Amino acid sequence: MSKQVTDILIVGVGGQGTLLTSRILADVAVQMGYDVKVSEIHGMAQRGGSVVTQVRYGKKVYSPIIKKGDADILLAFEKLEAARWLDYIKPDGMVIINDERVDPLPVMSGKVKYPEDIVDKIQNLIPNTRLINATEIAGQCGNARAANVVLVGVLAAVAGLPVKEMESAIRALVPEKAININLKAFEEGMKIIAD
Q1: Is pLDDT above 70 for 195?
Q2: What does the alpha-carbon distance between residue 54 and residue 74 come to, in Å, rounded to a whole number?
Q3: How far apart are CA 52 and CA 43, in angstroms?
Q4: Is the distance from CB of 171 to CB of 133 less than 8 angstroms?
Q5: With contact defined as beta carbons under 8 Å apart, do 150 and 185 qualify?
């Protein structure tokens, strides 16, 4: 029996837009007629702590929790967070990482060093890993904070999510003053995969 539920794990730190991203994906899955479950974990998010959301959609979803080793896609807004949650991705899954470094408190205090060659190590474990400079691309669209929506565009392209529904969800969930920048960021993210 083939897997009938798509599991997407979204990880980052507070303020990077992980919650908005999960809401966009859930909205699109509902528009596509799927059953959807979302789980959010906030770890001191306002102080730069981990924020993890799990989005599961399919014909019937019984639990909002992704088991270790079951995630189809790991969408990471920061490199260390990608490594932290890597045991949730299945061996033939995909990892999409924003090329951004956010030092956690132990690194800022000098107690530990930020791991070197972190993306190379991830690619050795999960060959289907893509490093995206989403923050820079979002900045070119008008606001670096739209990096999450650049990554949503990448995700939509690799997961085959419908563009019209994605754009509709962005319009519905993003503040009105930021809609145009976010739509541009989404479009640029989709282009990365098309190129």
Answers
A1: no
A2: 10
A3: 8
A4: no
A5: yes
Q: Which long-range contacts (CB under 8 A, 24 or more apart) does 63-72 make?
A: 63/37, 64/37, 64/38, 64/39, 65/39, 66/7, 66/9, 70/7, 71/7, 71/8, 71/9, 72/6, 72/7, 72/8
CA 150 to chain centre: 10
| Residue 16 DSSP code | S
Tell me the CATH number of domain 5-135+162-171, given options 3.40.50.2300, 3.50.50.60, 3.40.640.10, 3.40.920.10. Answer: 3.40.920.10
Q: What number of other Cβ atoms are within 10 A of residue 137's Cβ?
A: 24
56 - beta bridge partners?
A: 7, 37
Q: What is the pTM of this model?
A: 0.91
Strand partners, 95: 74, 129
- What is the Cα–Cα distance from 156 to 187, expressed in whole angstroms? 10
Higher pLDDT, 114 or 165: 165
Rounded Cα gap, residues 41 and 86, in angstroms: 16
For the stretch 24-58, pLDDT in tens is 999 999 999 999 999 987 665 455 677 899 999 99
